[in-house]
Amino acid sequence: MNYVESLKESMYIPSEELVDDMKEIDGDIMILGVSGKMGLNLAKLVKRASNKSESMKKIYGVARFSESDGIREELESEGIETIKCDFMSENQLEGLPKVKNVIYMVGYKFGTVGNEDYAWAINSYLPGRIASKYKDSNIVAFSTGCVYPLVKMSEGAPSEEFPPEAVGEYAQSCLGRERIFQYFSKQNKTPTTIFRLNYAIDLRYGIVSEIAQSVLNEWPIDLTMGHANVIWQKDACEMAIRSLRVASTPANIINVTGPETVSIRWMAERFAEKFNKTPKFIGSESDIALLSNASKAHAIFGYPKTTIREMIDITSEWLLNGGDTIDKPTHFQERQGKY
Predict the structure, then answer these.
(1) H-run or E-run covering 320
(2) Does the chain have fewer CB atoms within 10 Å around its N or its C terminus?
(3) Domain NAD-dependent epimerase/dehydratase, which positions (predicted)?
């Protein structure tokens, strides 16, 4: 195994805390929307934690699956049972097996502008179908910190006590997703966790990778959205899985991100040191940003294991050793909620 492969493999090694929690989670686990950016990472962690805990759970991965991306084959090689499903098909949705635990990762973000009706159907209508079908399950429903408004840096990031104020149709439809899961959690007594995530960082994708690539390639970096919260994707995936244990009715809402408010300028300067480059900046930092206070998640699960400086180190090594990237910008700079 070369260095790049070893970095990638590290994303799939479950922590002892996850293994211990897996022993306490009763029943099989189904991941809906497993072919998304985080799905493969999460699914492998679930399966390996299950194996290591000797709990012998059956793990399902459900998605539409492209014939060319190879994700389905990789999941099956791990021992995960895959099911191809168009979630908007009545017959296919009804054909899914019942399980005790559901991790719901289905969502639609990029391309919302001009396709708003589809975004609402996926983000707000479909959750009601899922919540009805799996009313006797424990559900972790992925959401986003985008349901919060931009806030003044001087006022600090919003915690779960802060009322949502979704800007733009993507964020509004995601708040719709939350409200639907909350409604059915109350109606059917379905234990549910609303998992408000921003922003998960992968070796190949995310804010940290974007800033690193910009510095390395001497591309200009817009500083208007001058601060952000980030969390290593493996840490976020582990918290999502472990959230099955804290699902409740009414639904338990948890902000999930790292503990720091990270300066984009500072991050770029650290990468500049790694790459022996001079970062190019345009604009200046606004006094408002999209931020989340994840102190509740840290109280439940502990602080994320991967620090921001470690993310910078790992991402630098990944790029310098020829690691690939996913050409899908995060658009974290967006201030009007248009994706």
Answers:
(1) helix 308-320
(2) N
(3) 29-197
CB proximity list for 89: less than 8 A, separation 6 or greater: none
The answer to whether 241 and 46 have CB atoms below 8 angstroms apart is yes
Predicted TM-score (pTM) above 0.85: yes
Determine the Cα–Cα distance for residues 78 and 99; give it in Å rounded to an integer.
20
Element holding 81 (H helix, E strand): strand 81-84
Distance between CA atoms of residues 148 and 162, nearest Å: 8
- pLDDT given at position 334: 65
Residue 297, CB-side half-sphere exposure with 13 Å CA sphere = 31
* Residue 63 pLDDT greater than 70, yes or no: yes
Query: Over 90: is that where the pLDDT of 103 sits?
Result: yes
Query: Is the pLDDT score of 312 beyond 80?
Result: yes
The rounded distance, in Å, linking the Cα atoms of 45 and 13 is: 7
For residue 330, what pLDDT is reported? 76
Token pair for 317: 């090594």
Q: Does the structure show a pLDDT above 80 at 337?
A: no
Residue % of the chain over a pLDDT of 70: 97
Structural domains in the chain plus CATH codes: 3-148+156-200+231-257+291-305 (3.40.50.720)
The overall average pLDDT reported for the chain is: 94
Rounded to the nearest angstrom, the gap between the alpha carbon of residue 316 and the centroid of all alpha carbons in its chain is 22
* Backbone torsions φ then ψ of 267, nearest 5 degrees: -60, -45
Provide mean pLDDT across the span 230-253: 98
Q: Is residue 108 within 8 Å of residue 71, measured between CB atoms?
A: no
Tokens of 265: 């300028």
